[in-house]
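Quiz preparation item.
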C-alpha cells in the first residue's frame, strides 16, 4: 500500500495520493461477498459486467487521478466551484477512457466523480501546504461542490436523467448531495463501523464488509431506487440493519449472512452501486488521520 511520507514535496504527494485513489477502487472490487454487486464470487445483479471488466476499467481510470490532483493544485487559490469547473474536462476524458475499456459499460462513473473530487481536494490542500486529514479532505470537497445540488438538481426544468427524476420524486440528491455534504454518509454511517471493527482486531476485509453494511443501512442509494423503487431501497436498508444487530457476529457468520443477502438481492435485481462507490471513498479517507 502506498503511504504518504512525513516530509515530501508536492509531486510526491500527487503521485502517492493518486496511487491510493486507484488502490481504493481495487479494494472495493476485490471485497467479497458484496450483495448484488460485482465481486470475486459473481457479477451480482448485473448481466452486462463482470470482475475482469471492472479490473480493466480501473486500469484505464487510474492514470487520471494524478490529473485531477494537478488541476486542484493549479486552482488552489480560486474559489472551490472554480476547481469543479476546471476538473470537468478531466472527468469527461476519464469517463471516456473507462467506456473505451469496458465497451461502453458504466462501471465507475460514480467512483470517478467522488475519487476525482478527493484528488482535486488533496491537490488544493497540498498547494496551500495544509495537512491532509479526513476532515480537511471532506471540507475541501464540500467547498469545491458548494451549490452543486441547487444548480444541477433544484434549478432544472423537466427531469431528464434518473438522478433528476429521483430528486423531483423523492428529494434524493445522490452523489451530488453526498459530495456537497463532505461525504457525510461515509463519515457517519460507514467509517465508524470500519474503525470499530479494526479496533476489535478484525481484518481489513471484515472491517470493509461491516462498513458496507453501515452504508447500505443509511445511504439513500439511487442505484437501488432505480432498480427496485423505494420498496427496494427500504428492503436493503432493513436487511442491512438486521445483520448489524446480530450478536456475536463472527467473520464466518458475517460472510454467510452477506452471501445469503447476495442471493436475495440478485433475485430482486437490486444493486447498491452508490454504496459501492462510497466503500472506495471510505477506504481512501481511512488512510489519513481524522483531524
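Solution:
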Amino acid at each position: 500500500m502506498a503511504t504518504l511520507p512525513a516530509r515530501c514535496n508536492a509531486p510526491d504527494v500527487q503521485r502517492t495520493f493518486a496511487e491510493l485513489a486507484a488502490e481504493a477502487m481495487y479494494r472495493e472490487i476485490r471485497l467479497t461477498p458484496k450483495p448484488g454487486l460485482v465481486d470475486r464470487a459473481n457479477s451480482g445483479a448485473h448481466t452486462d459486467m463482470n470482475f475482469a471488466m471492472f479490473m480493466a476499467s480501473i486500469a484505464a481510470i487510474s492514470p487520471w487521478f494524478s490529473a485531477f490532483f494537478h488541476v486542484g493544485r493549479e486552482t488552489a487559490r480560486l474559489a472551490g466551484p472554480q476547481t469543479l469547473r476546471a476538473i470537468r474536462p478531466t472527468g469527461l476524458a476519464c469517463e471516456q477512457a473507462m467506456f473505451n475499456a469496458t465497451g461502453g459499460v458504466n462501471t465507475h462513473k460514480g467512483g470517478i466523480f467522488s475519487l476525482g473530487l478527493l484528488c482535486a481536494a488533496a491537490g488544493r490542500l497540498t498547494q496551500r501546504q495544509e495537512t491532509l486529514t479526513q476532515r480537511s479532505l471532506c471540507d475541501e470537497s464540500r467547498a469545491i461542490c458548494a451549490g452543486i445540488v441547487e444548480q444541477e438538481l433544484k434549478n432544472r426544468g423537466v427531469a431528464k436523467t434518473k438522478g433528476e427524476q429521483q430528486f423531483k420524486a423523492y428529494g434524493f440528491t445522490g452523489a451530488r448531495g453526498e459530495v456537497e455534504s463532505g461525504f457525510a454518509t461515509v463519515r457517519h454511517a460507514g467509517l465508524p463501523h470500519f474503525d470499530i471493527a479494526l479496533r476489535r482486531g478484525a481484518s481489513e476485509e471484515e472491517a470493509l464488509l461491516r462498513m458496507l453494511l453501515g452504508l447500505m443501512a443509511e445511504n439513500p442509494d439511487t442505484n437501488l431506487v432505480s432498480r427496485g423503487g423505494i420498496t427496494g431501497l427500504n428492503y436493503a436498508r432493513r436487511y442491512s440493519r438486521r445483520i448489524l444487530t446480530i450478536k456475536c457476529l463472527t467473520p464466518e457468520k458475517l460472510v454467510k449472512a452477506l452471501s445469503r443477502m447476495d442471493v436475495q438481492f440478485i433475485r430482486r435485481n437490486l444493486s447498491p452501486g452508490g454504496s459501492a462507490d462510497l466503500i472506495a471513498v471510505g477506504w481512501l479517507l481511512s488512510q489519513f488521520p481524522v483531524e
